User: Which sequence fits this backbone?
């Protein structure tokens, strides 16, 4: 993993963030594809710059807000000797000693939850459509391929930077699907490579949208509904392999340990980690159900009659 590309400078700056570079690449690819798809659909490509900008803005704001929700119980805790479970983190930038702070986490360079970015990005661009009285369904359908490849590239950024989007420990030896994670132990612990798995799936449905679905003349909103269902299902499944906190635990999660196993390698988890649906899984289920509802209700598998 390479978190940063070192660049000599007199200011003590650690260098370029590899995650930021790949996230920027994701938006650049989207900014290349989107205006061409809008033109092909006889929509207004001039809106693409604003849609990309609002997508970036919504992604950064929403991803940070949802990250705070994810670590809420680590920020607002009862610490002996400190008064105000809620007031202290609000009035101290770094929060309680030894715990993440509300403001330091909110304004840090890491800690992004994709679904927060997706939902806020969609909210911002939908408000843009409403303000300019644009055909929301047609524009959202046009965005589906760009969202897919943007997510695929962004997940590669998670892997390259080693930001922690990994799976639980495994003895499987599968190229690309397993890698040695060094965060828990210096010698590395083999874990499921969930960022790359998810990226492969996202590239898969990008090719589906880019080279097949968008040419099928499906009814309006069809590609949007399909994206919600496909992406929601992919994320729902991958979360069963990821190390992620359950919103409502069904069982007690295994503890992080570094005791050597029978082969001499340090164990990372004592067993299968999934212990209840995570925040991302609940959102995934909601996306699947919403997409399926509109897909079935609107009979969105049907195609519009071609006009000459």
Assistant:
């Amino acid at each position: 993993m390479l978190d940063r590309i070192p660049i000599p400078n007199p200011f003590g700056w650690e260098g370029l963030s590899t995650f930021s570079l790949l996230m920027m690449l994701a938006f650049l690819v989207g900014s290349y594809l989107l205006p061409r798809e809008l033109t092909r659909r006889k929509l207004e490509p001039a809106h693409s710059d604003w849609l990309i900008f609002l997508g970036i803005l919504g992604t950064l704001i929403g991803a940070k807000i949802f990250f705070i929700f994810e670590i809420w119980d680590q920020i607002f805790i009862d610490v002996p000797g400190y008064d105000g479970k809620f007031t202290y983190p609000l009035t101290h930038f770094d929060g309680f000693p030894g715990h993440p702070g509300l403001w330091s986490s909110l304004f840090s360079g890491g800690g992004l939850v994709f679904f927060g970015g997706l939902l806020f990005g969609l909210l911002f661009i939908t408000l843009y459509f409403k303000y300019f009285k644009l055909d929301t369904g047609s524009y959202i359908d046009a965005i589906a391929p760009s969202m897919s490849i943007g997510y695929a590239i962004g997940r590669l950024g998670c892997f390259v930077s080693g930001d922690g989007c990994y799976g639980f420990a495994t003895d499987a030896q599968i190229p690309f699907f397993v890698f040695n994670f060094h965060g828990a132990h210096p010698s590395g612990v083999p874990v499921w490579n969930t960022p790359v798995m998810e990226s492969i799936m996202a590239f898969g449905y990008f090719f589906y949208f880019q080279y097949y679905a968008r040419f099928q003349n499906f009814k309006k909103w069809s590609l949007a509904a399909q994206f919600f269902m496909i992406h929601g299902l992919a994320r729902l499944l991958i979360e069963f392999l990821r190390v992620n906190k359950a919103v409502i635990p069904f069982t007690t999660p295994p503890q992080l340990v570094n005791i050597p196993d029978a082969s001499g390698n340090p164990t990372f988890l004592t067993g299968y980690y999934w212990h209840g649906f995570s925040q991302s899984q609940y959102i995934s289920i909601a996306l699947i159900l919403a997409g399926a509802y509109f897909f079935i209700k609107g009979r969105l598998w049907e195609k519009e009659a071609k006009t000459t």
Notes: The radius of gyration is 21 Å. The chain has a mean pLDDT of 86. DSSP finds ten helices and four strands in the chain. The first helix runs from residue 18 to 40.
